[in-house]
Amino acid sequence: MTVSERAHELAITAAQAAADKKAQDIVIIDVGDQLAITDAFLLAAAPNERQVLAIVDAIEEALLNLPEKAKPVRREGERGGRWVLLDYVDIVVHVQHTEEREFYALDRLWKDCPTVPFDNRNLARAEAAAGSGE
């Protein structure tokens, strides 16, 4: 795995922020061996433009709240809300409308790259609650 500690911290924090806003199909792809410009891509999808923008806002807020704050050096696609890209140098976040996610299939484009495991804490809590009969 070529993802640096910082990239890992940013990617996991961003992925959890996306999950907290009900993002779908969250994947972290380790592209460090293939690209010199970043260590990882975070991919997430949402069924409508409003939710895409809400996920983007949540990710930005979560990364600003880290002890070593992170701000994107570049943002693209916000106006349309169909595919927003946030470039944090160590990671690049792609939040896409579900249709764009399926059409552009970045997962398939980077299928030869390893993924970084992400355990959604909300899912783990729900499964624990269901198992305990709550």
Measured as a percent range, the helix fraction is 40-55%
- Provide the structure class: alpha+beta
**Oligomeric state of the chains in view:** single chain
Mean pLDDT, nearest integer? 92
Report the span from N to C terminus.
38 Å
Order of helices and strands: HEEHEEEHHH
Strand arrangement within the widest β-sheet reads: 1-2-5-4-3
Low-confidence stretches: none
- Total beta-strand segments: 5
Rough outline: globular
What amount of the residues lies in strands?
A: 15-25%
Q: How is the main sheet built? A: 5 strands, mixed
**Radius of gyration from the alpha-carbon trace, in angstroms:** 15 Å
The number of helical elements comes to 5
Subunit structure: Interacts with ribosomal protein uL14 (rplN).
Main location: cytoplasm
GO biological process, one term: cytosolic ribosome assembly
InterPro entries: Iojap/RsfS/C7orf30, NT_sf
In short:
This is Ribosomal silencing factor RsfS. The chain is α+β, with helices and mostly antiparallel strands.
Describe the structure.
One of its GO terms (molecular function) is ribosomal large subunit binding. It comes from Micromonospora sonchi. Interacts with ribosomal protein uL14 (rplN). With 134 residues, the protein is of the alpha+beta class. The protein has 5 helices and 5 strands. The protein has helices at 5-20, 49-64, 98-104, 106-109, 121-131, and strands spanning 24-30, 40-46, 74-76, 83-87, 91-97. It has a 5-stranded mixed beta sheet. Helix 1 crosses helix 2. The relative contact order is 0.22. The mean pLDDT is 92.
